[in-house]
Amino acid sequence: MTKTPHELEFMLESVTAGPSAHTEQMVEIEHEHRPWVCGSGVQALGIGEKITDGVDTGELALRVYVEQKRPDRKIDRPVPKRVEGVGAAPVATDVLEIGRLAPELYTGTSDPLAAGVGVGNPIDGTVGTLGALVRHRSDNALALLSNAHVLARDGLSDLGEEILQPASPDGGRARRDRVARLSAVQGFEFTDVGFPNLVDAAIAELVGRRASQREIRLLGHAPTGITKNVRRGMHVHKVGRTSDLTTAIIQDVHFRLHFPLRRSRNRRARVGFRDQVMCTRFTAPGDSGSLVLSSTGRAVGLHFAGSMTASIFNRISHVLDALDVDLVMEGDA
Amino acid sequence: MTSRRQAERALELHADELSVYPNVVGLGTSLTGREDRPPSERDHALAVYVTEKQTAEQLGRDGLLPGYVEIPGRGVTVKVAVEVIEIGDVEAEHTEDRDTGESQGSPFAPE
Fold first, then answer.
1. Would you say residue B103 has pLDDT above 50?
2. How many pairs of residues across A and B have Cβ atoms under 8 Å apart?
């Protein structure tokens, strides 16, 4: 029997639902299908007309996109011909070969320089994201905002160190791609217990001839303001060097965490942060430093850490106050 | 019912002692109970984020997180539930690789 798109959407959500699935029904279906959905060759799922021998059958099916089609006997967990949902009739599957999916990293040169692209300090060869353009409150000097662990080697840098765009792992080269010099860093307080730190942030003053633009890449606008109003369930988005434009839902607005950062060249030590915001995972390695925005475009935070299931950001007001800067916003001269 | 303020107070008073338990990477507050209920009808709790949930046997008696913590109320002691939430290892999210495709979804690499 032909399924409706709505029924198939439910089935699709069911087989891909994570640990926070919406209903018990979905949890049951997800549990049943997890073995083949997590199989080594499955890259993506979708909905579309089933195609048999190159002919569109007109029957809607659950599409399973794989890197390469292989005989069932060579696969540990083959895709079933049909999948069954709780209280729903079976749905046909259609396996389609699409090659290997890979993230499309933004590794190019941004000219003019825009937030949302990769930047880094070539001394340790790391790359994160340029979060925003800021102006120093004392002299109005224009600077790039990102994390201390991106621009300032976990706070170990000397002021004046050069910042590249693209960063060295993305092909950036000293001098040719120098866009800024480290101008201020909020150092970390290392403690065995407690959560004394509020931000992981640094700025680098613009140098060189490359022009800059206030608009964030992919968004086409600068932050429209800042807001301290951050609440559980709120939707946020960011543009990062690795995962581009993605959205998340805030889970915890009282988040405290600790993890190790470099205290010296050869030693890492515990850094505890308080008053952070945790949301569903919407970032990937290389997105550190991304500006986090509300659905109305107001800046709420600076992304800096994550885990398998969560992304974590500093509150933007703490970041701006710690570095004595203001964001360059929509409508600024 | 445990209010948001009581959960925040519990976090303030107990974060340091709970942060030294095995596998604990973060603390915060959470809403417990059925997700289809409005927040006003749900209890707040002290959230303890761990890299991985383990059995009581694996953790041993000293490693087992308490089921609740106590905060002083008006003449009484108030119990605030502790909710343990698994989030994996937490790390800074920079990278040193040009291609981070392999690290996405894997137990954490720096971003």
1. no
2. 157
